[in-house]
UniProtKB/TrEMBL annotation:
Keyword Iron-sulfur attributed: no
Organism: Marinibaculum pumilum
Highest taxon listed in the record's lineage: Bacteria
PROSITE patterns with a match to the protein in the record: CB (PS51900), TYR_RECOMBINASE (PS51898)
Name of the protein in question: Tyrosine recombinase XerC
Pfam family, one: Phage_integrase
Localization: Cytoplasm
Keywords linked to the UniProt accession: Cell cycle, Cell division, Chromosome partition, Cytoplasm, DNA integration, DNA recombination, DNA-binding
Amino acid sequence: MDIPSGDTAPSNDLTQAHWPAAEDLRAVLARWAGWLAHERRLAAHTLDGYQRDLKGFLDFLGAYRGGPPDLATIADLDKVDFRAWLAQRRRDGAAATSIARSVSAVRSLFRWLEREDLVDNAAGRALKPPRLPRGVPRPLTPGQAQDALACAEDPATTAEGQDWIALRDAALLTLLYGGGLRIGEAVGLAGRDWRAGATVIRVLGKGGKQRLVPVLPAVARALDRYRAACPWPTTGEEPLFRGLRGGRLHARLVQKRMAEIRAELGLAASATPHALRHSFATHLLAAGGDLRTIQELLGHAALSTTQRYTDVDIARILAVHEAAHPRARRAGQ
């Protein structure tokens, strides 16, 4: 997929999606889509995923039941029907992560239907995703992170070759590494969320939950330098991070910029913008930070999510031990 040349995200208006369903169900799905976008305030890429996953589910029901599903069809589904859908997804070669996302989308719909007193289907509300292998985050080393930030600030390494673009990229990536933000949280910031001299920045995280993230002096300097150079307003309700034409910067452009930095520095494919968030957490833990504090800084709902970073730190400790201990070295000789 090509990187969009504009500054804004692609349209994710689920209310206009051509759902393969009967008219009564399409009307309900439009309401659910509006709730996802405006009440739950899901990120654009999540809305995109929900649209694809639910369309696939409706396509399956159409073939399985012999016609476009309606509200009565949805209400009548039982565990056997859902098992048939999941079995079909596996036969189609869908990965466990894709199936888990599809289950999340469908379960969200059924739980919303129950809250709205439209359909009460216990089997749909109780859908469980497949067990996923526990992934270990792949952070950059402190040296690699610093090199990436320095490279971002060099206008010669940008496609646009403009100083303010380089300062913007450096400020955003410094914020990801220095504050542990998700890329969607960073590009979603408004000018009012950061003021010069402040020691915290207000972040709107998943599920519309707000949190205050401490701002390191290096992050503050990077933000102030970018703001001073940006030719577009970055205050009030205006986006903090602006695109080339003045619109809100799109996450895909940040990912593209990080890919350029990877190529410039010879970093692994895992060196993505999200890896800077992983690096933030891993480096804090290695320096003695406690898990509860890191959980709050990252905006994790569950401590178990944050505990993944202990696996990274243990792996690092074992590698150091293996390389440094005399008996370990002797055994390898």
